Amino acid sequence: MDDASTVLYARNGEVHIAYETFGDTGTGEPLLLIMGLDFPMLWWHDDFCHALVDSGFAVARFDNRDTGLSTHFTSPEVSRPWRAQLGRSAPAYTVLDMVDDGLAVMDAVGWRTAHILGGSLGGLLAQATGLLHPERVRSVMSALALPAGSGGLRTLTYLRMSSMLKLARAIRRARTDDEQIEELVHAYTLMAAPGVGFDEDWARRTARRCHERAPQDPTATQRHMSSGRGVKLPPLSGLQPPLLVINGEADPLVKVSAGRATARAVPGARFVSFPGMAHSFPQPLWPQIIAEISKIARTDRQDLD
Asked: Highest mean pLDDT: which of 4-8, 149-153, 194-198?
């Protein structure tokens, strides 16, 4: 498939995962993109995906379960979904299920192995995939993310709680279509601005595209946030694939110390932080980000010995 013109579906048990591809999936260097908490795959900018293809990659992006066109779940809504971060909300599924969703997409595309790039929650899922299924992973690229396995109160030390609370308050339970779209734009703005290259017009277009595909379910937040409950991953020090860690120095949600801790835990890992980068992949930094991605993708496993 040459472009993301068609939404296809992978299957993980009873769960259907919507995905799209860019480039020649048979000849390009395989790269799986995993989006973060609550956000569908369209928040991976189309032009960023095309730029990766121009650098020799074939790209697959997908809607995590409970987002976009993938299978959605139900649960009673709690007034403070952030309580799930402390394990006070029963999980509807786990990180392990979400890792398997990504592998199901790889299987559907025809990739036995791939590089894994994840942002935010997707970065944690990328780390978990490398830990649990190293035979499927060529390299791990974790961006804007916490260290896998940090859990509980330790997780909170890596987060900027004042910004997290602002983001929580931004969810107003909008009713009309336009209100829901503006709510998405506002949430993205809190994460991505003030950062270099913030593009509000693109954010609004993307929010509308996402809403037209599938209106956001506010209860999905608590389910995503509780997905780590009861899951004990292997130590990060045992990660076998090459690891690249990317953080934004202007990230209003995740402290740079989170990325440093992730890289410090893995022998041979590369850590890169970008001034002016918030909780997003801003277009002015794409050439530098893609250069780092290409560099780690060329790393031979033996280089880490």
From this structure: 194-198
Q: Are 31 and 115 in contact (CB under 8 A)?
A: yes
pLDDT computed for residue 129 by the predictor: 98
Q: 97 and 142 in contact (C-beta within 8 Å)?
A: no
Tell me the whole-structure pTM to 2 decimals: 0.92
**How much of the chain, in percent, has pLDDT values that exceed 90?**
70
From the list 282, 155, 145, the residue with the least C-alpha distance to 226 is 155
pLDDT digits (tens, 9 = 90+) for 53-69: 999 999 999 999 999 99
Per-residue HEC secondary structure of the chain comes to: CCCCCCCEEEEECCEEEEEEEECCCCCCEEEEEECCCCCCHHHCCHHHHHHHHHCCEEEEEECCCCCCCCCCCCCCCCCCHHHHHHCCCCCCCCHHHHHHHHHHHHHHHCCCCEEEEEECHHHHHHHHHHHHCHHHEEEEEEECCCCCCCCHHHHHCCECHHHHHHHHHHCCCCCCHHHHHHHHHHHHHHHHCCCCCCCHHHHHHHHHHHHHHCCCCCCHHHHHHCCCCCCCCCCHHHCCCCEEEEEECCCCCECHHHHHHHHHHCCCCEEEEECCCCCCCCHHHHHHHHHHHHHHHCCCHHHHC
Nearest CA-CA partner of 64 in 113, 99, 90 = 99
Are the C-beta atoms of 102 and 2 separated by less than 8 Å?
Answer: no
Q: Which CATH superfamily is 8-304 part of?
A: Alpha/Beta hydrolase fold, catalytic domain (3.40.50.1820)
Beta bridge partners of 11: 16
* CB 22 within 8 Å of CB 28: no
Say which residue the tokens 């956000």 belong to. 39
Q: Dihedral (C-alpha) 228, 237, 61, 12: value to the nearest 10 degrees?
A: -50
